[in-house]
């Protein structure tokens, strides 16, 4: 999950081409001033760093390829790298290409300039100039460009300058440059920027006559403008800003200056982007504008609809260059937001209507354009983006802590989550309490353990072994709940303080397979119990040592500070017996806004979204199986006070060919974490480490265990392609224990997910409620609606609101007077705000019917029944629904 720091040893050797400095094992490569490449050249990691001493040119027909992990250092403010041919810089998320100044010793620990310790600063090198025809497109992928852009004006110089050709930057960061991060100059210049951050430059991007299209990117904390469009002539094509964030820039979000006539088809536009909180308050307390448009005598109707402009009332989100007295002859161009006042006319907060006309002058002598707006569409919430970025460990840890589940155990619960280091250090007398067993068939030759590191080393080299946990004969009889944290094996004690308890977490970020899908972050939480004590004799569950359980919180990859953290939880996966079930916001309990509550079941540790207590019988778990009580009356003592009990999981080695997996740490070593009886492993019940479980391998599949996709990589900044989206294609995955009503249209859900409208603050087109159902909780989004609460009973009434399309699946869970639990599945006709009354008939066979207010009567397509007295499960399928 974290990239380890690497230390190098440098020798010293001074030659015409190579210089070596203390502290590194390989030579740095010096590129002499005036070098011209006339044929293809590759810079490799073995030759890194490459120190460019002066002007460098790549001629037309030649290509300079820079491999992953290469550091390029440029000496001085005058050298210019000119690309008349092609530059292909191909880094990776873990080994980016870095282009920086010779003073930047921190990037690799090398004093390349021989000036002692020095640090990088903006403007220490000039720039890279792309001046090539369309036959030579340059690409920068996973590249870090910093400390360049030397020049005298933000809108005239840049670290990357494009004067001709069509080029692309992806998955990169361009930052701390003196002037523009990217400068596009000329009507033959085009660049596309995707999944990239431009920050702490002068301007983020300047387009002076050229085209700069930006998608799924972040342009923030630049000292002047986020994006500066200056169009003296029509650009080669339209600049499009899509699903990007332009925020926290010093002066304006967007400067839009159109000097000459620009046809609408080539005028810059932005859609589904977040442009807000740019600039600072002036001395009069006025907020600056987010989009500033200045058009000359020839004005163009430009469409900047469907964006998020910040919170109304906090300032002037958009300022159109208003109008002259010419009035009706002027062309409306749809760019007015408020509030602001000009003379006697005032624009109200929010989008203004076509009736409002504001007269103003931007500065003396300027004749302004028309400000006529016809119901300008906008968004009141920020949009999600596909940008992932790199979360520093501290930021990632804080987010993981904010979303950490709160655990509330059953009154009869015996075990709390364990921190592994003190667990493995426990002693029984003078030797380690727990043992590593080399084989699965017993532990006569077990090795006493005294540390987690010892267990890791033994297990990694013995893939057939397992962990044998000390129980001194019987866990169930010896357990004593106590605040005393030193286990005494005649009276086993468990405590829940941060020194001995922990929740582990793993972050997986995955981009959807669809090019317009937004990325998802899976905050995967795991905890380890000493023992699974099925003292309630739950059907199909046996006592066993050890137990890894958990939950997963799913959020957008690019968390937006404009949105409350609660609204950014798309859904929560509750893990129950190896399968995960999804719960929408509103359908599970939460504390302190962002912490979903988990209720571990007594005797099995399966985690539920709801409380359940049925003395003398059973609660009902997934697939209608009986489950132990989970009344939540025994809260974990550090739920709200734990500042340090969140621990990152070691990275698991997911390679299917690595047996045993090398360097994978304890998270994916093969041995089982505990036995079942007499020290013998049972594959069905002996728990595995998280790295060997489906919820870790592919959390979007909610507990299934497919092989990871070929391009799958895991890290705090993982970017993957051709991976599944976060929405399940199975309605049953949304119908976990506690869900009593489910409306499900997976096609609509997946479509909403592809455009970033699934879960969280995005509410669906229909909802379902249960009349007179006290204590029920409800959650809905596009394609899914849930009710969590007590099972329904015959005669309950479902209330549908909104438009329900034909073919939506309805699943209901109900109890009857004969002690059975029934799950019925229907396919609904088109409904529009109607009432549905639920009736149950038991006429020799299970038959469940749904009576609608329209008079129509539906029979269930399938009925699954569980006899709670016999714990038998029967399935009845109805051939046809009428």
Detailed description of the structure:
By secondary structure, the chain is mainly beta. The chain is 5% helix and 35% strand. It is built from 6 helices and 66 strands. Strand 1 and strand 2 (18-20) form a beta hairpin. The chain is globular. 52% of the residues are buried.
Provide the fold topology:
Blueprint: E1 13-14, E2 18-20, E3 28-31, E4 35-37, E5 41-43, E6 50-52, E7 56-58, E8 63-66, E9 71-74, E10 80-83, E11 86-90, E12 97-101, E13 127-131, E14 139-141, E15 143-146, E16 158-170, E17 173-175, E18 180-185, E19 189-194, E20 197-199, E21 205-208, E22 211-215, E23 218-220, E24 225-231, E25 240-242, E26 245-247, E27 252-258, E28 269-271, E29 274-276, E30 289-295, E31 316-320, E32 337-342, E33 345-351, H1 393-402, E34 406-409, H2 420-424, E35 427-428, E36 431-432, E37 435-437, E38 447-448, H3 452-461, E39 466-468, H4 475-478, E40 480-481, E41 493-494, E42 503-510, E43 520-532, E44 544-556, E45 571-576, E46 579-583, E47 590-591, E48 595-600, E49 607-608, E50 619-620, E51 626-627, E52 634-635, E53 646-648, H5 694-697, E54 739-744, H6 746-754, E55 766-770, E56 777-781, E57 784-788, E58 797-804, E59 809-815, E60 820-827, E61 831-832, E62 835-842, E63 846-852, E64 857-859, E65 862-867, E66 872-877
Helix content: under 10%
The shape, in one word, is globular
Radius of gyration: 31 Å
Q: Biggest β-sheet: count, sense, barrel? A: 19 strands, parallel
Q: CA-to-CA gap between the ends?
A: 53 Å
Number of strands: 66
How would you state the average pLDDT, rounded? 75
């Amino acid at each position: 999950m974290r990239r380890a720091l690497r230390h190098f040893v440098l020798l010293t050797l001074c030659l015409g081409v190579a210089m070596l400095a203390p502290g590194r094992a390989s030579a740095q490569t010096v590129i002499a001033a005036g070098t011209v490449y006339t044929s293809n050249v590759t810079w490799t990691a073995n030759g890194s760093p490459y120190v460019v001493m002066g002007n460098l040119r790549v001629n037309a027909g030649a290509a300079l390829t820079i491999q992953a992990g290469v550091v390029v250092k440029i000496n001085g403010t005058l050298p210019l790298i000119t690309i008349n041919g092609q530059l292909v810089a191909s880094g990776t998320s873990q080994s980016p290409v870095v282009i920086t100044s010779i003073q930047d010793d921190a990037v690799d620990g090398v004093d390349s300039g021989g000036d002692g310790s020095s640090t990088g600063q903006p403007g220490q090198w000039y720039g890279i100039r792309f001046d090539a025809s369309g036959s030579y497109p340059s690409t920068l992928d996973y590249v870090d460009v910093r400390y360049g852009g030397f020049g005298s004006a933000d809108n005239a110089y840049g670290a990357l300058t494009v004067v001709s050709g069509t080029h692309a930057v992806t998955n990169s960061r361009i930052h701390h440059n003196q002037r523009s991060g990217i400068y596009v100059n000329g009507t033959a210049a085009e660049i596309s920027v995707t999944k990239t951050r431009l920050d702490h430059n002068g301007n983020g991007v300047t387009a002076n006559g050229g085209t700069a299209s930006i998608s799924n990117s972040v342009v923030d904390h630049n000292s002047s403008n986020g994006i500066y469009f200056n169009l003296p002539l029509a650009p080669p094509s339209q600049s499009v800003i899509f699903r990007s964030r332009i925020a926290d820039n010093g002066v304006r979000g967007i400067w839009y200056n159109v000097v000459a006539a620009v046809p609408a088809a080539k005028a810059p536009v932005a859609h589904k982007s977040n442009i807000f909180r740019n600039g600072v308050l002036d001395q009069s307390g006025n907020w600056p504008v987010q989009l500033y448009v200045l058009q000359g005598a020839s004005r163009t109707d430009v469409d900047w609809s469907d964006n998020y402009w910040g919170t109304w009332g906090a300032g002037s989100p958009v300022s159109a260059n208003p109008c002259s007295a010419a009035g009706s002859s002027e062309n409306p161009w749809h760019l007015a937001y408020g509030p602001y006042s000009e003379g006697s006319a005032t624009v109200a907060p929010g989008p203004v209507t076509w009736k409002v006309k504001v007269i103003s002058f931007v500065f003396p002598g300027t004749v302004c354009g028309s400000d006529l707006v016809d119901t300008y569409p906008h968004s009141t919430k920020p949009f999600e983006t596909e940008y992932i970025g790199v979360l520093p460990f501290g930021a990632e840890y804080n987010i993981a802590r904010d979303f950490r589940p709160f655990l509330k155990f059953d009154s009869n619960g015996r075990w709390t989550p364990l921190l592994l280091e003190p667990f493995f250090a426990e002693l029984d007398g003078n030797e380690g309490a727990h043992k590593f067993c080399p084989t699965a068939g017993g532990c006569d030759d077990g090795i006493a353990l005294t540390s987690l590191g010892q267990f890791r080393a033994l297990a990694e080299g013995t893939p057939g072994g397992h962990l044998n946990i000390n129980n001194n004969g019987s866990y169930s009889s010896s357990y004593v709940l106590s605040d005393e944290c030193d286990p005494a094996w005649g009276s086993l004690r468990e405590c829940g303080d941060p020194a001995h308890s922990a929740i582990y977490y793993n972050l997986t970020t995955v981009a959807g397979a669809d090019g317009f899908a937004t990325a998802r972050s899976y905050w995967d939480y795991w905890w380890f119990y000493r023992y699974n004590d099925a003292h309630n004799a739950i059907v199909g569950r046996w006592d066993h040592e050890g137990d890894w359980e958990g939950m997963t919180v799913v959020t957008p990859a690019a968390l937006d500070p404009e949105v409350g953290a609660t609204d950014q939880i798309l859904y929560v996966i509750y893990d129950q017996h190896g399968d995960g079930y999804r719960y929408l916001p509103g359908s599970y309990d939460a504390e302190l806004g962002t912490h979903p509550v988990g209720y571990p079941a007594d005797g099995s540790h399966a985690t539920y979204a709801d409380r359940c207590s049925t003395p003398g019988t059973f609660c009902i778990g997934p697939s209608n199986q009986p489950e132990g009580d989970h009344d939540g009356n025994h809260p974990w003592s550090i739920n709200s006070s734990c500042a340090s009990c969140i621990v990152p999981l070691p990275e698991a080695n997911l390679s299917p060919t690595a047996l045993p997996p090398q360097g994978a740490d304890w998270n994916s070593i093969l041995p089982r974490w505990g036995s079942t009886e007499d020290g013998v492993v049972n594959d069905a019940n002996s728990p595995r480490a998280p790295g060997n479980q489906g919820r870790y391998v592919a959390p979007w599949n909610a507990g299934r265990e497919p092989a990871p996709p070929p391009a799958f990589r895991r890290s705090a900044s993982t970017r993957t392609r051709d991976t599944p989206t976060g929405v399940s294609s199975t309605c049953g995955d949304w119908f976990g224990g506690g869900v009593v009503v489910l409306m499900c249209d997976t096609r609509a859900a997946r479509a909403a997910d592809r455009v970033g409208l699934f879960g969280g603050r995005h509410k669906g087109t229909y909802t379902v409620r249960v009349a007179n159902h006290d204590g029920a909780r409800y959650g809905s989004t596009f394609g899914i609606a849930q009710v969590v609460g007590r099972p329904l009973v015959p005669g309950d009434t479902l209330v549908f609101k909104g438009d329900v399309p034909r073919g939506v699946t309805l699943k209901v869970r109900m109890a009857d007077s004969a002690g059975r639990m029934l799950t019925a599945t229907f396919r609904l006709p088109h409904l529009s705000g109607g009432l549905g009354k639920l009736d149950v008939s038991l006429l020799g066979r299970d038959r469940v019917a749904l009576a609608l207010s329209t008079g129509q009567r539906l029979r269930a397509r399938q009925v699954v029944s569980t006899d709670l007295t016999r714990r038998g499960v029967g399935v009845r399928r109805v051939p046809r629904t009428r």
